[in-house]
Amino acid sequence: MARPLTKRAPRGLKRMLSLREFEAALARLPRPARDYFRAGADDELTLADNPRAFERIKLLPRVLVDVSTRDLRCNVGGHELGLPVLVAPMAYQRLAHPKGELALARAAAAAGSLYVASTLSTFTLEEIAGVGGLRWFQVYVHKDREVTASLIRRAEAAGYSAIVLTVDVPVLGCRPNDLRNNFALPGGMTMANLAPYMARGQNATLAAFFASRHDASLCWDDLKWLRGLTGLPLWLKGILRPDDARRAARRGVEGIIVSNHGGRQLDTAPAALDALGAVAAAVKDTPLLLDGGVRRGTDIVKAMALGAQAVLVGRPFLWGLARAGEAGAARVFEILREEFDRALALCGCRSVNEIRADLLGRRAP
Ligand SMILES: Cc1cc2nc3c(=O)[nH]c(=O)nc-3n(C[C@H](O)[C@H](O)[C@H](O)COP(=O)(O)O)c2cc1C
Question: Against a cut of 0.85, is the pTM above it?
């Protein structure tokens, strides 16, 4: 007898109890994709330090607080999110699963999260918008500025509610395995957003793409040009220094994402969490988000106690996609929600508004 075609979560997903358990799913991917997703720059010191920074900070729980009801919602850029987790912009998601960006954007929408679409997605920004849910568009600025202008106009027309300008990639960081693998998208996949502006087969490797098309001359004064292209809110992603944060705030950006690009750009840059406190002290009125190494609900509490409104999570969603597509990504969200909820309760917090710096214990050496 034929089995009914019910849509069931793939077996075993419920038994996955932490984000790190999903990393093993990378083994299912061809080597170049696996290496690309995993990679950090050079000696991968910053990559390794991002999660360690969370381990170094201890939490000091408040006790005897009535935490019988808890509210995980938070506000980011005028949007109410179901939990303080956004999906970090990541290129080439079809390398993890055939449904790629569409599957991850669907999981984000179902979780009440916000999906940040990369310029280098393998479905077009319009196809991703078709999924629904909250979405921002991440921009890399091209030497041909008209390409960027056109992408931003398309994003605005497709209902993206903010532009995220990535500022930590004047040039591409050195990821040795990607160079050894001559890393490029396999046949049948394209940088879908850019296809209309590129000749076929042009810039086959990622390194060649950045070297020939990406604008390393971008500087603070160019924010005026960017502002002139769109009325959408502008967030800068990849700031680590208080003086840069102040510069951004003076130019009226809507928010800053404290990030070292998941350790993929400047090796030996500080862990994102280690940079957060000083940035938060420098720009009290500018909303902050953080990414890099967030793997646990307690990590979200620590980032928020240090001044972030929410966090972005990157690689674990790719692991979830590689494990089981949309269902895998949905399980990653579910684990984060359960862990964050439990961490709130155990810290004596009923809502995100009660996460304050007094929860931070002594930093381990
Ligand atoms: C495979 C991969 C591709 C990425 N692509 C982009 C991108 O296109 N644009 C961007 O701003 N950041 C990109 N990032 C950086 C992420 O947005 C984010 O800063 C980082 O992954 C967060 O660290 P985590 O992976 O430890 O959570 C990428 C990261 C990875 C792992």
Answer: yes
